[in-house]
């Protein structure tokens, strides 16, 4: 038996299933220390000729 993506979506929707991003994937947005660590990690990946972004930029 094969289940289509649409049918699976319909069954999950009927049961009230809602997709949310995992708490771990957005945890850094709430913690300023983790935000700064993520920003520093991105700075390490920045190409040499590109100017840094301001701290309040999103």
Describe this entry's structure for a reader.
The chain starts with a helix and ends in a 13-residue tail after the last helix. It is elongated and about 55 Å long. With 58 residues, the protein is mostly helical. The model has no long low-confidence stretch (mean pLDDT 76).
Number of helices: 3
Rg over CA atoms: 20 Å
Helical proportion?
40-55%
Terminal-residue CA separation: 47 Å
User: What does the overall shape look like?
Assistant: elongated
Any low-confidence stretches, pLDDT <50, length ≥5? Answer: none
Question: Largest beta sheet, briefly?
Answer: none
Specify the structural class: mainly alpha
How much of the sequence lies in strands comes to: under 5%
For the secondary structure, the number of strands is: 0
Report the mean per-residue pLDDT as an integer: 76
Q: In terms of quaternary structure, what is this?
A: single chain
In short:
By secondary structure, this protein is mainly alpha-helical. The chain has 3 helices and no strands.
List keywords for this structure.
single chain; 58 residues; mainly alpha; 3 helices
Please write out the topology.
Layout: H1 5-14, H2 23-26, H3 32-45
